Amino acid sequence: MSDHPTVPLLIEKFGQQHIDVREFNGNTTVVIPKSILVDVITFLYNDPACGYKQLTDVWGVDYLDYPEEQNARFGVLYPLLSIDKNRRIIIKVFLSEDDLTVPTLNGIYKGSEWSERETAEMYGITFEGHPDPRRILLCDLFEGKYPLRKTYPLKGQGERESFTPITTESA
């Protein structure tokens, strides 16, 4: 059992059956089903005993060929910070390859907008309800291609060869 002070609050509110706590290098990660993601994040944001008012990032992870068995191939991680309590916690949901959708957290954390867009673009994860799902990093040549998936070739899929070289004369 974790000694992180937020874990008992989550267990009390959502039940032990929905909370899987993992500790690594001093970081506490709580794995939850995606069906309760918005409820858990709302609780962590609003409850005065928690006060996680800052979402520091949104990470996608491809666990293909990961040395330890995982719940599914893809994960989305939400590192949260409570400045008032001086605490950090990571919330993780797993996504199966046949359902790469997760609700947006933009209604709680406005700052999630760009991080969710980046994760969507690089992994092909859809953030349902996102207010602006436009691409921000890659050009249209990458439509339907997700460069941070482990199955994506290291040298790409011919995108580089499609660009017109820029020379000093043409610039």
At the fold tier of CATH, the topology name is Beta Polymerase, domain 2
Count of helical regions: 3
So what's the overall shape? elongated
CATH architecture: 2-Layer Sandwich
Look at the structure and name the CATH superfamily.
NADH:ubiquinone oxidoreductase Nqo5 subunit
Which blocks of ≥5 consecutive residues have pLDDT under 50? none
Task: List the secondary-structure elements in sequence, H or E.
Answer: HEEHEEEEEHE
- How many extended strands? 8
Rounded to an integer in angstroms, the radius of gyration calculated over CA atoms is 18 Å
| Level-1 CATH class name | Alpha Beta
Portion of residues in beta strands equals 15-25%
Q: Give the structural class.
A: alpha/beta
First and last CA, distance: 61 Å
Mean pLDDT: 93
Helix content: 10-25%
Main beta sheet: strand number and arrangement? 6 strands, mixed
Count of structural domains:
1
Describe the structure.
- By secondary structure, the chain is α/β, with parallel strands linked by helices.
- It has one domain: Beta Polymerase, domain 2, CATH 3.30.460.80.
- 18% of the residues lie in helices and 23% in strands.
- It is built from three helices and eight strands.
- The chain has helices at 6-14, 37-46, 112-123; strands at residues 20-24, 27-31, 54-55, 59-62, 74-82, 87-95, 101-103, 126-128.
- The strands form two sheets. Strands 1, 2, 3, 4, 5 and 6 form a six-stranded mixed sheet that branches.
- 19% of the residues are buried.
- The mean pLDDT is 93.
